[in-house]
Design a protein that fits this description.
The longest helix is centred in the first third of the chain and has 23 residues. The chain is of the alpha/beta class. The protein has 10 helices and 10 strands. Strands 5-4-6-7-10 form a 5-stranded parallel sheet. Strands 2-1-3 form a 3-stranded parallel sheet, with helices on both faces. A two-stranded antiparallel sheet has the order 8-9. The radius of gyration is 19 Å and the shape is globular. It has 2 domains: 87 residues, 3-Layer(aba) Sandwich (Rossmann fold); 129 residues, NAD(P)-binding Rossmann-like Domain (Rossmann fold, 3-Layer(aba) Sandwich). The mean pLDDT is 97. Helix 1 packs parallel to helix 10. Bound molecules: nicotinamide-adenine-dinucleotide.
Length: 286
Amino acid sequence: MIDGKAIASALCKDLKTRVDHFKARHGYAPGLAVILVGEDPASAIYVRRKGEQCRVVGMETMEHRLPVETREETVLELIQRLNGDSAVHGILVQLPLPPHIGTRTVLAAIAPSKDVDGFHVTNAGWLAIGEPTLAPCTPWGCIRLLHTLNIPLRGERALVIGRSVIVGRPMAQLLLIEDCTVTIAHRYSENLADLCREADILVVAVGIPNLVRGDWIKPGAVVIDVGINRLQSADGTNGHRIVGDVAFDEAARVASAITPVPGGVGPMTIACLLENTLRAAEIAAN
Ligand code: NAD
Protein backbone atom coordinates (compact mmCIF):
# COMPACT_ATOMS: atom_id res chain seq x y z
CA MET A 1 0.00 0.00 0.00
CA ILE A 2 1.36 3.39 -0.97
CA ASP A 3 1.32 5.55 2.16
CA GLY A 4 0.54 8.98 0.67
CA LYS A 5 0.18 10.48 4.12
CA ALA A 6 3.73 9.54 5.12
CA ILE A 7 5.20 10.60 1.76
CA ALA A 8 3.35 13.95 1.90
CA SER A 9 4.50 14.49 5.46
CA ALA A 10 8.15 13.88 4.42
CA LEU A 11 7.67 16.30 1.51
CA CYS A 12 6.28 18.96 3.88
CA LYS A 13 9.22 18.48 6.23
CA ASP A 14 11.57 19.06 3.33
CA LEU A 15 9.50 22.08 2.25
CA LYS A 16 9.77 23.59 5.72
CA THR A 17 13.58 23.48 5.45
CA ARG A 18 13.41 25.08 1.98
CA VAL A 19 11.01 27.77 3.26
CA ASP A 20 13.37 28.50 6.19
CA HIS A 21 16.24 28.97 3.70
CA PHE A 22 14.05 31.18 1.53
CA LYS A 23 13.13 33.38 4.52
CA ALA A 24 16.76 33.62 5.66
CA ARG A 25 17.82 34.64 2.15
CA HIS A 26 15.03 37.07 1.25
CA GLY A 27 13.71 38.30 4.60
CA TYR A 28 10.08 37.38 3.93
CA ALA A 29 7.96 34.23 3.65
CA PRO A 30 6.24 32.88 0.51
CA GLY A 31 2.57 33.92 0.64
CA LEU A 32 -0.51 32.06 -0.59
CA ALA A 33 -3.84 33.85 -1.04
CA VAL A 34 -6.92 31.61 -1.03
CA ILE A 35 -10.30 32.81 -2.30
CA LEU A 36 -13.44 30.98 -1.20
CA VAL A 37 -16.80 32.15 -2.54
CA GLY A 38 -19.83 30.76 -0.72
CA GLU A 39 -20.17 28.25 2.08
CA ASP A 40 -19.85 24.84 0.48
CA PRO A 41 -18.86 22.71 3.51
CA ALA A 42 -16.37 20.49 1.64
CA SER A 43 -14.67 23.57 0.10
CA ALA A 44 -14.49 25.24 3.53
CA ILE A 45 -12.71 22.14 4.91
CA TYR A 46 -10.24 22.10 2.01
CA VAL A 47 -9.48 25.81 2.47
CA ARG A 48 -8.97 25.37 6.19
CA ARG A 49 -6.59 22.42 5.65
CA LYS A 50 -4.59 24.36 3.06
CA GLY A 51 -4.21 27.30 5.47
CA GLU A 52 -3.13 25.00 8.32
CA GLN A 53 -0.52 23.25 6.18
CA CYS A 54 0.81 26.61 4.94
CA ARG A 55 1.44 27.68 8.50
CA VAL A 56 3.05 24.30 9.34
CA VAL A 57 5.73 24.83 6.66
CA GLY A 58 6.19 28.49 7.62
CA MET A 59 4.39 30.21 4.73
CA GLU A 60 2.05 33.16 5.00
CA THR A 61 -1.57 32.56 4.10
CA MET A 62 -4.30 35.10 3.40
CA GLU A 63 -7.87 33.82 3.25
CA HIS A 64 -10.52 35.81 1.38
CA ARG A 65 -13.97 34.45 2.21
CA LEU A 66 -16.67 36.04 0.10
CA PRO A 67 -20.44 35.54 0.42
CA VAL A 68 -22.17 33.31 -2.12
CA GLU A 69 -23.92 36.28 -3.80
CA THR A 70 -20.60 38.01 -4.61
CA ARG A 71 -20.55 39.30 -8.20
CA GLU A 72 -18.02 38.04 -10.73
CA GLU A 73 -16.60 41.59 -11.09
CA THR A 74 -15.82 41.69 -7.38
CA VAL A 75 -13.89 38.42 -7.57
CA LEU A 76 -12.00 39.70 -10.64
CA GLU A 77 -11.13 42.96 -8.84
CA LEU A 78 -9.80 41.01 -5.86
CA ILE A 79 -7.67 38.86 -8.17
CA GLN A 80 -6.28 41.97 -9.89
CA ARG A 81 -5.34 43.38 -6.49
CA LEU A 82 -3.64 40.11 -5.47
CA ASN A 83 -1.84 39.93 -8.84
CA GLY A 84 -0.22 43.26 -7.99
CA ASP A 85 0.55 42.45 -4.34
CA SER A 86 4.24 41.55 -3.94
CA ALA A 87 3.54 39.68 -0.67
CA VAL A 88 1.32 37.23 -2.57
CA HIS A 89 3.20 34.57 -4.56
CA GLY A 90 0.36 32.13 -5.12
CA ILE A 91 -3.36 32.68 -5.74
CA LEU A 92 -5.82 29.84 -5.39
CA VAL A 93 -9.53 30.09 -6.15
CA GLN A 94 -11.33 27.22 -4.45
CA LEU A 95 -13.57 25.40 -6.93
CA PRO A 96 -16.42 24.94 -7.57
CA LEU A 97 -17.55 28.56 -7.83
CA PRO A 98 -21.25 29.48 -7.59
CA PRO A 99 -22.95 29.08 -10.99
CA HIS A 100 -23.27 32.85 -11.67
CA ILE A 101 -19.48 33.20 -11.67
CA GLY A 102 -17.58 32.07 -14.78
CA THR A 103 -14.86 29.64 -13.71
CA ARG A 104 -12.83 30.10 -16.93
CA THR A 105 -13.02 33.91 -16.67
CA VAL A 106 -11.86 33.85 -13.06
CA LEU A 107 -9.02 31.38 -13.63
CA ALA A 108 -7.86 33.37 -16.68
CA ALA A 109 -7.59 36.51 -14.52
CA ILE A 110 -4.92 35.00 -12.25
CA ALA A 111 -1.38 36.01 -13.24
CA PRO A 112 0.20 32.81 -14.67
CA SER A 113 3.24 33.34 -12.43
CA LYS A 114 0.95 33.13 -9.36
CA ASP A 115 -1.27 30.33 -10.68
CA VAL A 116 -0.23 27.69 -8.11
CA ASP A 117 -3.11 25.40 -9.10
CA GLY A 118 -1.71 25.27 -12.64
CA PHE A 119 -5.12 25.78 -14.29
CA HIS A 120 -4.34 28.94 -16.32
CA VAL A 121 -4.19 28.29 -20.07
CA THR A 122 -0.63 29.60 -20.15
CA ASN A 123 0.51 26.99 -17.62
CA ALA A 124 -1.63 24.32 -19.31
CA GLY A 125 0.14 25.29 -22.56
CA TRP A 126 3.62 24.97 -21.02
CA LEU A 127 2.63 21.53 -19.75
CA ALA A 128 1.24 20.53 -23.17
CA ILE A 129 4.57 21.32 -24.85
CA GLY A 130 6.40 19.30 -22.21
CA GLU A 131 7.78 22.17 -20.13
CA PRO A 132 5.72 22.26 -16.95
CA THR A 133 6.23 25.34 -14.80
CA LEU A 134 3.38 25.24 -12.30
CA ALA A 135 1.67 21.87 -12.86
CA PRO A 136 -1.77 21.04 -11.40
CA CYS A 137 -1.28 19.80 -7.85
CA THR A 138 -3.18 16.48 -7.89
CA PRO A 139 -1.52 14.94 -10.96
CA TRP A 140 1.82 16.41 -9.92
CA GLY A 141 1.28 14.74 -6.53
CA CYS A 142 0.70 11.40 -8.29
CA ILE A 143 3.98 11.78 -10.17
CA ARG A 144 5.76 12.66 -6.92
CA LEU A 145 4.40 9.44 -5.37
CA LEU A 146 5.69 7.37 -8.30
CA HIS A 147 9.10 9.09 -8.15
CA THR A 148 9.41 8.65 -4.39
CA LEU A 149 8.76 4.91 -4.75
CA ASN A 150 11.27 4.68 -7.63
CA ILE A 151 8.64 3.14 -9.89
CA PRO A 152 10.08 2.85 -13.40
CA LEU A 153 8.05 4.86 -15.91
CA ARG A 154 10.02 5.04 -19.15
CA GLY A 155 8.36 2.92 -21.83
CA GLU A 156 5.66 1.65 -19.46
CA ARG A 157 2.06 1.53 -20.62
CA ALA A 158 0.00 4.03 -18.65
CA LEU A 159 -3.78 4.33 -18.70
CA VAL A 160 -5.45 7.43 -17.28
CA ILE A 161 -9.20 7.09 -16.77
CA GLY A 162 -10.80 10.56 -16.75
CA ARG A 163 -9.98 13.55 -18.95
CA SER A 164 -10.78 16.54 -16.73
CA VAL A 165 -8.73 19.71 -16.94
CA ILE A 166 -7.92 19.39 -13.24
CA VAL A 167 -6.74 15.78 -13.12
CA GLY A 168 -7.00 13.48 -16.17
CA ARG A 169 -5.52 15.62 -18.96
CA PRO A 170 -2.56 17.05 -17.04
CA MET A 171 -1.93 13.57 -15.56
CA ALA A 172 -1.63 12.11 -19.06
CA GLN A 173 0.72 14.92 -20.11
CA LEU A 174 2.94 14.44 -17.07
CA LEU A 175 3.14 10.69 -17.75
CA LEU A 176 4.05 11.48 -21.35
CA ILE A 177 6.89 13.69 -20.09
CA GLU A 178 8.01 10.63 -18.08
CA ASP A 179 8.21 8.69 -21.37
CA CYS A 180 5.22 6.43 -20.69
CA THR A 181 3.07 5.17 -23.55
CA VAL A 182 -0.14 6.91 -22.54
CA THR A 183 -3.79 6.09 -23.20
CA ILE A 184 -6.62 8.30 -21.94
CA ALA A 185 -10.06 6.76 -21.33
CA HIS A 186 -13.27 8.63 -20.56
CA ARG A 187 -17.01 8.14 -20.30
CA TYR A 188 -17.34 7.17 -23.99
CA SER A 189 -14.40 4.76 -24.07
CA GLU A 190 -15.33 1.20 -24.93
CA ASN A 191 -13.87 -1.95 -23.40
CA LEU A 192 -12.53 -0.14 -20.35
CA ALA A 193 -11.69 -3.43 -18.63
CA ASP A 194 -9.51 -4.52 -21.58
CA LEU A 195 -7.72 -1.15 -21.65
CA CYS A 196 -7.00 -1.54 -17.93
CA ARG A 197 -5.60 -5.05 -18.38
CA GLU A 198 -2.88 -3.63 -20.65
CA ALA A 199 -1.75 -0.94 -18.21
CA ASP A 200 1.44 -1.14 -16.14
CA ILE A 201 0.49 2.18 -14.52
CA LEU A 202 -3.20 2.84 -13.95
CA VAL A 203 -4.47 6.25 -12.77
CA VAL A 204 -8.19 6.49 -12.10
CA ALA A 205 -9.86 9.92 -11.73
CA VAL A 206 -13.56 9.50 -12.41
CA GLY A 207 -15.70 9.85 -9.29
CA ILE A 208 -17.54 6.49 -9.45
CA PRO A 209 -17.04 4.22 -6.43
CA ASN A 210 -15.56 0.79 -7.23
CA LEU A 211 -15.59 1.42 -10.99
CA VAL A 212 -12.34 -0.51 -11.49
CA ARG A 213 -12.50 -4.13 -10.36
CA GLY A 214 -9.65 -6.39 -9.29
CA ASP A 215 -9.89 -8.62 -12.37
CA TRP A 216 -9.38 -5.56 -14.63
CA ILE A 217 -5.90 -5.05 -13.28
CA LYS A 218 -2.75 -6.48 -14.85
CA PRO A 219 -0.83 -8.51 -12.25
CA GLY A 220 1.96 -6.32 -10.84
CA ALA A 221 0.51 -3.05 -12.11
CA VAL A 222 0.78 0.17 -10.08
CA VAL A 223 -2.64 1.64 -9.27
CA ILE A 224 -3.16 5.30 -8.36
CA ASP A 225 -6.73 5.96 -7.23
CA VAL A 226 -7.55 9.68 -7.36
CA GLY A 227 -11.31 9.31 -6.80
CA ILE A 228 -12.99 10.65 -3.68
CA ASN A 229 -16.52 9.36 -3.18
CA ARG A 230 -18.64 9.81 -0.08
CA LEU A 231 -20.79 6.77 0.66
CA GLN A 232 -23.56 6.72 3.23
CA SER A 233 -22.52 4.41 6.06
CA ALA A 234 -24.24 1.01 6.07
CA ASP A 235 -25.85 1.52 9.51
CA GLY A 236 -28.14 4.24 8.11
CA THR A 237 -26.76 6.95 10.40
CA ASN A 238 -25.72 10.33 9.01
CA GLY A 239 -22.10 9.22 8.95
CA HIS A 240 -20.31 8.50 5.70
CA ARG A 241 -17.15 6.82 4.56
CA ILE A 242 -14.82 7.87 1.80
CA VAL A 243 -13.89 5.43 -0.96
CA GLY A 244 -12.01 5.76 -4.23
CA ASP A 245 -12.82 4.67 -7.78
CA VAL A 246 -11.02 1.32 -7.45
CA ALA A 247 -12.36 -1.72 -5.56
CA PHE A 248 -9.43 -1.58 -3.15
CA ASP A 249 -9.48 -5.05 -1.55
CA GLU A 250 -9.77 -6.83 -4.90
CA ALA A 251 -7.17 -4.62 -6.59
CA ALA A 252 -4.67 -4.86 -3.74
CA ARG A 253 -4.44 -8.63 -4.32
CA VAL A 254 -3.27 -8.11 -7.93
CA ALA A 255 -1.39 -4.80 -7.99
CA SER A 256 2.24 -4.41 -6.98
CA ALA A 257 1.45 -1.04 -5.39
CA ILE A 258 -1.81 0.81 -4.80
CA THR A 259 -2.90 4.06 -3.15
CA PRO A 260 -5.65 3.83 -0.53
CA VAL A 261 -8.52 6.31 -0.28
CA PRO A 262 -8.27 8.22 1.97
CA GLY A 263 -4.57 8.56 2.71
CA GLY A 264 -3.19 8.14 -0.81
CA VAL A 265 -3.29 10.95 -3.37
CA GLY A 266 -5.23 13.45 -1.22
CA PRO A 267 -2.41 14.46 1.16
CA MET A 268 -0.04 14.84 -1.81
CA THR A 269 -2.31 17.43 -3.43
CA ILE A 270 -1.88 19.91 -0.57
CA ALA A 271 1.87 19.21 -0.29
CA CYS A 272 2.26 19.95 -4.02
CA LEU A 273 0.23 23.15 -3.69
CA LEU A 274 2.72 24.33 -1.07
CA GLU A 275 5.61 23.25 -3.27
CA ASN A 276 4.15 25.23 -6.19
CA THR A 277 3.77 28.29 -3.94
CA LEU A 278 7.41 28.08 -2.88
CA ARG A 279 8.40 27.60 -6.52
CA ALA A 280 6.39 30.69 -7.56
CA ALA A 281 8.05 32.71 -4.77
CA GLU A 282 11.52 31.51 -5.82
CA ILE A 283 10.86 32.40 -9.47
CA ALA A 284 9.54 35.86 -8.44
CA ALA A 285 12.57 36.45 -6.18
CA ASN A 286 15.00 35.54 -8.92
P1 NAD B 1 -14.74 15.27 -13.50
O1 NAD B 1 -16.16 14.94 -13.19
O2 NAD B 1 -14.37 16.62 -13.97
O3 NAD B 1 -14.21 14.23 -14.59
C1 NAD B 1 -14.55 12.87 -14.52
C2 NAD B 1 -14.01 12.17 -15.75
O4 NAD B 1 -14.41 10.80 -15.68
C3 NAD B 1 -14.55 12.72 -17.07
O5 NAD B 1 -13.47 12.98 -17.93
C4 NAD B 1 -15.44 11.59 -17.62
O6 NAD B 1 -15.36 11.48 -19.03
C5 NAD B 1 -14.86 10.37 -16.95
N1 NAD B 1 -15.86 9.31 -16.75
C6 NAD B 1 -17.11 9.45 -16.25
N2 NAD B 1 -17.74 8.26 -16.22
C7 NAD B 1 -16.87 7.35 -16.73
C8 NAD B 1 -16.92 5.97 -16.96
N3 NAD B 1 -18.02 5.26 -16.68
N4 NAD B 1 -15.85 5.38 -17.49
C9 NAD B 1 -14.73 6.08 -17.78
N5 NAD B 1 -14.62 7.40 -17.58
C10 NAD B 1 -15.67 8.03 -17.05
O7 NAD B 1 -13.94 14.87 -12.18
P2 NAD B 1 -12.47 15.30 -11.66
O8 NAD B 1 -12.49 16.70 -11.15
O9 NAD B 1 -11.43 14.91 -12.66
O10 NAD B 1 -12.35 14.34 -10.40
C11 NAD B 1 -12.37 12.94 -10.55
C12 NAD B 1 -12.37 12.29 -9.16
O11 NAD B 1 -11.16 12.65 -8.51
C13 NAD B 1 -13.50 12.77 -8.25
O12 NAD B 1 -13.89 11.70 -7.42
C14 NAD B 1 -12.84 13.85 -7.41
O13 NAD B 1 -13.46 14.01 -6.16
C15 NAD B 1 -11.45 13.29 -7.27
N6 NAD B 1 -10.41 14.30 -7.03
C16 NAD B 1 -9.52 14.01 -6.05
C17 NAD B 1 -8.49 14.91 -5.77
C18 NAD B 1 -7.51 14.58 -4.70
O14 NAD B 1 -6.82 15.44 -4.20
N7 NAD B 1 -7.37 13.30 -4.34
C19 NAD B 1 -8.38 16.10 -6.50
C20 NAD B 1 -9.30 16.35 -7.54
C21 NAD B 1 -10.30 15.42 -7.80
